[in-house]
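hi! just following up on the protien thing from before. the input was this:
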Amino acid sequence: MNIPAGTWTGGGITEQQFNDVLDRLERLYSADVQKLGDNLQIKRLWNDGTVNASAQRMGRTQVLNMYGGLARHKATNVEGFALVACHEYGHHNGGAPKGGGWFGNSWATNEGGADYYAGLKCLRRFFAEDDNAAILATTQLDPVAEAACTAQFPEENDRLICLRISMAGQSVANLFQDLRKETTAPTFGTPDKREVSRMNDAHPDTQCRLDTYFQGSLCVAKESEAVANEDYKVGSCYAPRDAVGTRPRCWFFPGK
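and the predicted 3d structure came back as:
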């Protein structure tokens, strides 16, 4: 799909919102990337109508390609666009499991792992700067998401951020449903029950991706707890220790 600049789709975000999201991501994470010996480069391709985003490494530079076409899609809101940006950042910094990204590059956290990292770490830091109570006061919340976030997080700020992440996940899942021309809507109350027999490094199905964003948001590991490139358990939730907040088995295979 291609949505040229100047096209009204009945939704989407403005160029100012596009830049605001990327400004914040750059400000929040540039120092972390520099500590790794890398530089963060966000390519702001507002005039490109491509409904997509991508990550690539250029030497010691972590590149995020963010296209205006995706921002203009009718399903995209600020939360959803922030999630996509966090997903691409997660390819570079989301830790294990590796093996995803373009052409199976070994530097990249795989697709499901980048989804999980977005909800587990990146969006928590991103939304921590907002007045989430005010934002959510005018939002119709999903009852399944609201009940799960309330059960997991007794602290109000944590609960509100969990709910903002659920909004982001629903936005992006709705985007995938439209792009894939699927007739079944992804919802929090209909998780994907399938279990893979080996790791799926490619893009999971739409419902599976919504489940992954949501489980990342429900994990009680702190945002400040770093993830690791060698051990997926570090800084995250995992079975059998945790009953909630683990990487969904619809794409993740823990191995032995």
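The first strand starts at residue 39 and ends at 45.
The radius of gyration is 17 Å.
cheers
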